Amino acid sequence: MRRASMKRRNKVLVLACRFIVLMFCAHLALPGTGASATTPASAESSRPMDVQGKSVPQAAQQGQPLSPQPSGQAPTPLGTVPRAPGEKSDFERYVSGKSPAAISLDIGQFGYDLFAKPPSTFAPSPNVPVGPDYVVGPGDAIKIDVWGRFEGNWSVVVNNDGTISLPKIGVFGVAGVSFKELKELLHKKFSKYYGGFDMNVSLGPLRTIQVYVVGNAQRPGAYTISSLSTVINALFESGGPLKTGSMRNIQVKRNGKTVVTFDLYDLLLQGDKTRDLRLMPEDVIFIPPVGPLAGIAGTVNTPAIYELKGETRLLDLIAMAGGITGTAYKGRVQIQRTEDHHSRIVFEGDLLDIEHNPAKNLVLQDSDLAKIFAVADNSKTVTVTGAVANPGEYGVTPGVTTVKDIISLAGGLLYYTSDQAEMTRVTATQSGPKTDIFSIDLAKALAGAPQHNVPLQTNDYLLVRTIPEWSIYRTAAIKGEVRFPGTYTFKQGEPLSSLIERAGGFTPRAYLRGAMFTRERVREQQQRQINEMAERLERELSGAGAAQVATASSPDDARMVQFELEQKRQFIAQLKAARAKGRIALNITEMTTFRGSAYDIELEQGDTITVPSDPKTVQVIGSVYNQSAFVYEQSKEYGYYVDLAGGYTSNADKGNVFILQANGTALKAGGSFLGFGQRLGSGDTVVVPEQLDRIAWMRNIKDITQIMYQIAVAAGVLIVVF
């Protein structure tokens, strides 16, 4: 008896598997009956371009590594480590409550990123008006127009010896004179031979000059630039200083003498470009080694490593960093200093009266690091949540602010508030935190009763309850063949029949046997089970496939294994594409018999019932020659429709044909009824499975029955097997 029972049970499981495989394929293939496999669009990944000429970040003096600047991002004008697009400022993080407790030491040397990507239009154009102080030199084109008692125009180029030649005037030198002096010189020369004339003098395309950038430059060498170029133009051409080069002591040498010393900090911090000298031919721009460095981190506007020049004090460094932020704590500043190249020491101080106390305003040394800390979060607040107008955190005076006060600050109680509230208080003790929870009668608290209108302490948590089972309204949708389809509210405990009656009842075209009822809670549960099963099946199939490929004894076996692996991949893809519908199979009948029956279930939020019209068709799918839909004829059996579909294929499992009924249940064709419904009705689907033995790899899958059952649930079908 026991052995016969086990054989019968195994046979039933095999039959269920055969049906479910075909049923799942039908679910994916038929429009409107399930989820269709979708191919996700491939996300096009873009690779940022490298910034040309960008210097390699060096470690900060304190030894912390620097984060490289994101490729393709515009350099920060002030030359510090740039913020990513959309990154919050220190104050934004402080307001949002996400201000970091630790100071970030990810700072870079100030100013060098200015040269990471020079603008293409920064260099002077050769076709621009020149000022009166422009110095004429060899290669300049001079245009002369004369009118009055005599007329003429000449275009001459300054020779290498600095002279020009004009008819009747002769040869004379112009190199080294300013453009203003050139106009006066030419007028004087023409006045010797002519009178009563006016003159206009202009310059053509400007000449180029050669200068040299040497020292600690990114790309030292000789550069040919416009004659209007300045020191900054040449620095951009050469990529600016190296991290080992000075930003504050850039020297311009002319004829062996230093004519100007340029400090880039004047430009970066003050916008001062007055010492940006216009270059002359053969000028040398020398970038000496970087001077002493000091870093500043924490709550300043521009944390960075700055080059010191002369005697620099702590306030000077803070000023270079743009000053302290609004969240800076003046009660503490820390200076880390390398002492005699031997050890690192730490000074602690404050900024409270540093402007008037020279002892606090320390003179900085090379490799010093100043840390400015943020204010501590010592706010005294309580949390109010629940049925109040404005839940949230509120500042209190411990022992003074009462429950009545905090309810007033929170905007008062809402109309659906319960009289009962709950207070949670945590007290620090030597043995650990002590938590007390006690109830408060809000009506008595608002009336001022001392035992309920208790004084609040820091970090108290007040929960204002709503009335029991409060909800404004719940909704359910009814669609299809009812008189007034739409989304309806319902009260707690209201049955499905009440919703149908409120929608006006069924129309004469309603096909109750095909009504579909779905529930969101059921859908979520089904989808979760499907996802878990699909992931487990993928692991099993992938592991078995790899082992079979490794142990293939011949090329033919290897090709067969590869074919099976491809079948497995396609099968897994179908499993992952399945989407649960959350269908619950209900036997919906006319209202006289449906009302109060076992299927007249209580409504839940998000329920949907769809009542279709009679499709008057029967579909045949699976191992037949012509899968299609046929006109339903009431007196015909399933074999009639199989014949209309061309009959069984050679691989069909004729003994295990199933009927997928429109009401969400299934039965074995020609056998006992499974569930409720007629033997074969309008809207049913005849499923002819393929012989399972042809899919050899499925025989080795563990838990195939359970997995296929979960996929059947995704199709919205309840399988009953006995």
UniProtKB/TrEMBL annotation:
Residues 1-28 form the signal peptide. Residues 210-287, 380-464 form the SLBB domain. Residues 129-203 form the Polysaccharide export protein N-terminal domain. Residues 296-337, 477-514 form the Soluble ligand binding domain. Residues 35-91 are annotated as: Disordered. Keywords: Cell outer membrane, Ion transport, Lipoprotein, Membrane, Palmitate, Polysaccharide transport, Porin, Signal, Sugar transport, Transmembrane, Transmembrane beta strand, Transport. Residues 57-75 have a biased composition (Low complexity). InterPro entries: Poly_export, Poly_export_N, SLBB_dom, Soluble_ligand-bd. It comes from the Bacteria. It holds the Pfam family Poly_export. It is a multi-pass membrane protein. It is found in: Cell outer membrane. Belongs to the BexD/CtrA/VexA family. This is Polysaccharide export protein. It comes from Oryzomonas sagensis.
